[in-house]
From TrEMBL:
Chief location of this protein within or outside the cell: membrane
Pfam families: Cation_ATPase, Cation_ATPase_C
A GO cellular component entry from the record: plasma membrane
Organism: Carex littledalei
The protein's name: Sarcoplasmic/endoplasmic reticulum calcium ATPase 2 isoform X1
Amino acid sequence: MGTSVVSGIGTGLVISTGSNTYIRTILSKLGKVQPPDAFDKGVQFISYTLICIMLVAVPVLILSTYLVSKNLSESIIFGICVAVVLTPQMLPLIVNTNLARGAVAMARNRCIVKSISAIQHMGAMDILCIDKTGTLTMDRFIMVHHLDIWGFPSETVLKFAFLNSYFKTALKGPVDDAILAHTYTNGYRFHASAWRKLDEFPFDFTRRRISVVIEAIDMDVRYVVTKGAFEEVLGVSAYMECANGRVITSTLTIDERLRLLQMSEEMNNDGLVVLAVAIRKIPKATDMLLLKNTSIESDMTFLGLISFFDPPKDSAKYALYQLAERGISPKILTGDSLSLTIKVCKEVGIATTHTTTGADLDVLDETEFHATVNRATIFARLTPTQKLHVVQSLQKHGNHVVGFLGDGINDSLALDAANVGISVDSGANIAKKSADIILLEKDLNVLVFGVEHGRLTYGNTMKYIKLSLVANFSSAMSLLVVTICMQIEPLSPRQLLTQNFIYSLGQIAIPWDKMGDGYTKTPQIWSWKELPIFMLWNGSICSIFDISMFIFVRLYYGVGNVASSFFKTAWFVESLVMQTLIIHMIRTTKISFLQDMSAWPVSVSTLIVIAVAVVIPYTLLGQMMGLTQLPVSYFGFLLVLFVGYFSFGQVAKRIYIKVHGRWL
């Protein structure tokens, strides 16, 4: 329920339940169904497009064949076969094989993919939101200073910081480890056994501090010891303690507060994490329940500050450069101070021109908020909800595909909302539950590898999707033209289904194809709106060459052969080879076979399908299907036909790229 209990007994006061609790506000926003992204919309469009083609082509083909054969049952069977052929049966297999191969490859690089669709989203990702601690830095804190209010070393400050970390039980982290390690290794003896903990007020992302209530076993004294973010602790302090140990009871003046803030700012500018320590002395006779009902973290005495160095990762700068080379812009979303974040970002090469804080974002109206989010690269002092709003603004108003890398409870909302949520194996359970990808190493170089695989996956998926649209559209167009104009059945149902089966098997190798040089250097965001133009442009070209084969057979071999098994065999071979070769036209922007060869699995698959198409008419299976042997002259014509198709298609490809700016 969001509360950490280790041992002992206590009295609980219920102030809210169920959906009214704070923890529920976070959990209620997790796991909600995300709206369809560009990939989902594209798959839906393909389905609707092919359904529309079926609704138009199938009834026309059934009617046309019935007018010729006068056999309604055969005409309906032929129409059903056409509908089956127009269905991209291999789409689920190709897409999932693509994604599975990417998941396996990333697993080899110590990256566990929980949702395989996230791989495709990584290929489209153009903004990566990152938490500073542990990502840009080592997340291994080293204690540097323990200073009083005047900047002198203070054992009192270290003593109470040590007691706070020693008795703290909830969410212990690297800061507490650093305090304890510094105390023990430098020979300090603060005798924690002489103290007893009475209560604890855990850290949260609004207060940004942790307090423990302790009492001395052999003295009549109790303390509330508070450690946390400098500004928040200073804000609840009313007094300060001088270097000589004398407590000044006067209220902290504005000048003193500004001086202390300036001291903290200077240390942040040096790359140090700064926390404040304050105490409140309370009599032993004080009723703890009554004290809780007021405000236990108030009127405190400010002791001083403690600072830590969290060194930047050596690999972070190069990894960020690699991501930038691939068109991914980093944005830092952190709860740390702005000056410290700027210092770290400068060391790893992130632009610090445009920055903002959570407090600044809260006072902006909606328009200014979205403009600031789109412009800024560093967001400091953010709450979990503010991180969520930043991610949502980038998605909805910036039209970006957003990745988020975080490992804490405060990152869970943003992880869940991002297109790609990325956490680490050492992260909080709720963060790992919300993430799509788990890194076994908190290293940005793993993400560079993942981005490349995501874009490779996207490219191979788009090859099959566009291939399906072009091949199915051209087949439907060619069948309609021949059936309507010549009043004949181009292929029998058995031949049509056999051709489709062989063609589909040949496409299994597509996930093993490679992409051209430079393809993985830019984000691949799918715009489904371009698919109709792509289908019409390239499908029409294929249909022209299909119909050219029909014209050649009619003129060269004679009209009488058009309606015979000879024509069906010629159509069977030409159509199967054409559909198989389309992938080589679509897979690259370069000249197929000359400037860019496909990967060997695709090339071997193509050769096997072409060989089967050529040989099958000469086999017993071909005779059973009603196919007949073809003369050598016909294959000479096919060679000329396909050379013409690739030559004309290459010109059409260049025109399309020049007009629309992209191919796949």
